[in-house]
Design brief:
Elements lengths: L3 H4 L2 H8 L12 E7 L4 E10 L2 E10 L2 H14 L4 H15 L23 H18 L6 E2 L2
Parallel strand pairs: 1-4
Antiparallel strand pairs: 1-2, 2-3
Bound molecules: zinc ion (ZN).
Amino acid sequence: MADLRDLYQELILEHSKAPRNYRQLAGADHKAEGFNPLCGDHFTVYLKMDGDSIQDIAFQGSGCAISKASASMMTQSIKGKTKEQAKELFEHFHRTVTGTANGDGSDLGKLTVFAGVSEFPTRVKCATLAWHTLQAALEGSQESVSTE
Ligand code: ZN
């Protein structure tokens, strides 16, 4: 069993204390709300699309360090990407946090700091909540999503 402290990398702590793009997005044309009842994480993700590209993204809410840092870093990674690229990145991220990635994760960039989450199955939902919420926002669904 890995040490829980290994999970809280400096970058994760830093993002959880000072999340990026943490605000309501003026002029957002897509939005979704996500819950992780197991941990109590709760976020809203806002998107402003330009055709098929994510022109701007922001989020608000509350949650544990992992969920907040993941949401923060997701907004940085996703901005300017197309819907398709965002989906691919999520799939890759999901494989990394569930420990099923077979590549070296190189194109995940700094998101690879979440690879340690695979040692803590209950934390996978924290790490992926914002991504599931993003997915719902991209699909244009106004319904809230839950990791359960
Ligand atoms: Zn959590």
